[in-house]
């Protein structure tokens, strides 16, 4: 477009081979070849195979004495194109790809039975194991959806055609167990709520129509959201976890449950920390002796039902620092170990007088300056004793050095966590 008189304009198309074990599609590819070819390899692996004015060209293996492209059966090729004018070159177009057929290519085999990954009142989303391509890449699938009367008579049918093999640059993946290997997926719409449909699939390639899959009977979801979840309770707790359970709402179709909790440490309201179709979950990474609030609701294709009543659970007390005052002060000091370290090294001169003198000094410092309880402060004083006993060389010159921090993190912090009852993330990084 926009050709100027007396100035040569052309399109440049380049290709690259990708080795793959699969056999695949297309003897000729629309939009490539016929004209002058240049062979030098580009730094990114592409090489120029066409240069001319045509916007619709064909790539063939030795199909033209002037256009000899090294293409082979059962290989994947990638192509890109850009335009030139007197002002220079455009950006490369998006890369496209295609397979050549094998010499014995045949129509595809039957796809795997379709699996439902999401149901809605007016449709559902499917995934399926791809058809065996039989030497020619599967280019599309047809999903046949049929509704039958009690006597087996077909009362309604619909065919949905979807693209077949995923593009090599952007493979289509659905985050489900069934499609973890990149199985094809598609959504079907325009159906009726709470209705059972027969679903079958077949693939197509350059050799024709493939075999039908086995039948899958799929019922769309109801048009009504679920009711309220029953018997939401906790079954066990530690200082850091709470085990929760509930029961399915009565007379309700449920696809998933959403569980929320508030977070005292992050100062945020309710947020979802779990979603799934099970009836239990363990809330973890909690703090000891802290009250938490939980709630759950059921959802289906029509939406989500109301939340359950809020469940209040207080985690267990696990150490000397798991009380409301120490937790409050620890939260105000995001790096409490580093703050206590100042007390430890201010009192270091007393260590050589006697460990008990050093402990008293460090304990008083932590209590007065950081406003920690005396029992909690004793845990940090014991941290100082551990550092002097087990990391004397690494911490002799600079207690903030990486050698010192690495040493007492490995040798002393586990005992500190047991004494305080606090998780490592709450104590902060040194």
Structure, explained:
The protein is α+β, with helices and mostly antiparallel strands and 430 residues long. Helices cover 17% and strands 32% of the residues. It has seven helices and 23 strands. Strands 1, 3, 5, 6 and 7 form a five-stranded antiparallel sheet that branches. A hairpin with a 2-residue loop joins strand 5 (76-85) and strand 6. The two termini are 64 Å apart. The model is unreliable at 1-13, 15-42 and 165-180 (pLDDT under 50).
Total E-strand runs: 23
Number of helices: 7
* Poorly predicted spans: 1-13, 15-42, 165-180
Assign the structural class, choosing from mainly alpha, mainly beta, alpha/beta, alpha+beta, or little secondary structure. alpha+beta
Could you report the average pLDDT, rounded to the nearest whole number? 78
Rg over C-alpha atoms, rounded to the nearest angstrom = 34 Å
- Largest sheet, described in full? 5 strands, antiparallel
What level of helicity do the residues show?
A: 10-25%
Shape: flat
Give the topology.
Blueprint: E1 10-18, E2 29-30, E3 47-52, E4 58-59, E5 76-85, E6 88-89, E7 96-99, E8 115-120, E9 123-127, E10 140-148, E11 154-163, E12 185-188, E13 196-205, E14 208-212, E15 216-219, E16 230-237, E17 242-247, E18 256-263, E19 268-276, E20 280-283, E21 291-300, E22 303-304, E23 311-314, H1 324-332, H2 336-346, H3 355-369, H4 374-390, H5 402-411, H6 413-420, H7 424-427
Antiparallel strand pairs: 1-3, 1-5, 2-4, 5-6, 5-7, 8-9, 9-12, 10-11, 10-13, 13-14, 13-15, 16-17, 17-20, 18-19, 18-21, 21-22, 21-23
